[in-house]
Design a protein that fits this description.
It is a multi-pass membrane protein. It is found in: Cell inner membrane; Cell membrane. Belongs to the binding-protein-dependent transport system permease family. This is Nitrate ABC transporter permease. The structure is a single chain. The protein has helices at residues 2-51, 59-65, 67-71, 84-115, 117-130, 138-146, 149-160, 162-174, 178-186, 191-229, 234-243, 247-276. The protein is mainly alpha-helical. The longest helix has 50 residues, at 2-51. It is globular, with a radius of gyration of 25 Å.
């Protein structure tokens, strides 16, 4: 009993000493270095604003000008006069609908391509042709089909978020170790069981990598699409404020767009950790 207590005390002291050594490194990597990076960007912005002060505000001036948006993000002051929070929600709704529909189509297609050589030979040329097409090139086609801005934006998100998920899913399925499949054949495991017990778990990291890339592209595209189609959304907010030469609000929108994209990617990475029970490479 005394020996066990001594071992526990030694372990506690060792862990405490290790934490004391790791804490400064953690503070440096998580707090100090990122803060220095942000300060560098703000300093660069400040210098450029001082050079071109007639049009571009300095960081303090932009903060003061945007206090109403920051303190009251969900205000409603008449038709078309909404807080930036409502505009962000409208854009997120379009992105999540288009991205979700894309994932529902892309993951099964990726599995089909990864498991079937004839399917790969038939579908790969189509993917290689449409993958490099600019997302905005799909917008006129979507407007011709739907004749409305909202479903057209969702369609553009859907079509452009397909390719990374399809390609990564197919790569994940094709990368499953052959030894696993040989053992499954020896055990006479049914095909559906091979898919659910071997191929699906082994390819999950690739699937989530594709989903994270697709979601990032979707969030990039929605801003450009909303600039062209107008209506309610964070992209139209950027264009509208630029038309009024209100760069303070444009800087606020850029920060909100970037922070939202970071949160979306973080959420998918946490979902990946929950599903796969493994830490992601980014964490």
């Amino acid at each position: 009993m005394i020996f066990q207590l001594n071992i526990a005390a030694i372990a506690a002291v060792a862990s405490q000493a290790a934490w004391k050594k790791a804490k400064p490194i953690l503070v440096r990597d998580v707090v100090i270095l990122p803060a220095l990076g942000f300060l560098g960007i703000i300093l660069l912005w400040w210098i450029v604003a001082l050079v071109n002060h007639e049009l571009m505000p300095t960081p303090p001036e932009a903060l003061v000008a945007n206090l109403d948006y920051i303190l009251n993000p969900f205000y409603e002051r008449g038709p078309g006069n909404l807080g930036i929070g409502w505009l962000l929600i409208a854009s997120l709704r379009r992105v999540l609908i288009g991205f979700g529909l894309g994932a529902l189509v892309a993951i099964p297609l990726g599995f089909l391509i990864g498991m079937s050589r004839p399917a790969m030979l038939a579908l790969n040329p189509i993917i290689q042709i449409f993958k490099p097409v600019s997302p905005l090139a799909w917008l006129p086609i979507a407007l011709a089909i739907f004749n409305l801005a909202d479903p057209s934006a969702i369609f553009v998100i859907f079509i452009t978020s397909l390719w990374p998920t399809i390609i990564n899913t197919a790569l994940g399925v094709a990368s499953v170790p052959k030894d696993y499949l040989d053992v499954a054949r020896v055990l006479e495991m049914p095909r559906w069981r091979r898919i659910t017990k071997i191929i699906w778990p082994a390819s999950l990291p690739y699937v989530f990598t594709g989903l994270r890339i697709s979601l990032g592209i979707a969030w990039l595209v929605i801003v450009a699409v909303e600039m062209l189609t107008g209506g309610m959304g964070i992209g139209f907010f950027v264009w509208d404020e630029w038309s009024r030469l209100n760069l303070s609000s444009v800087f606020l929108a850029v920060f909100v767009i970037g922070l939202t994209g970071l949160i979306l990617d973080f959420a998918v990475s946490k979902l990946q950790e929950f599903v796969t029970h493994r830490p992601t490479a980014a964490n």
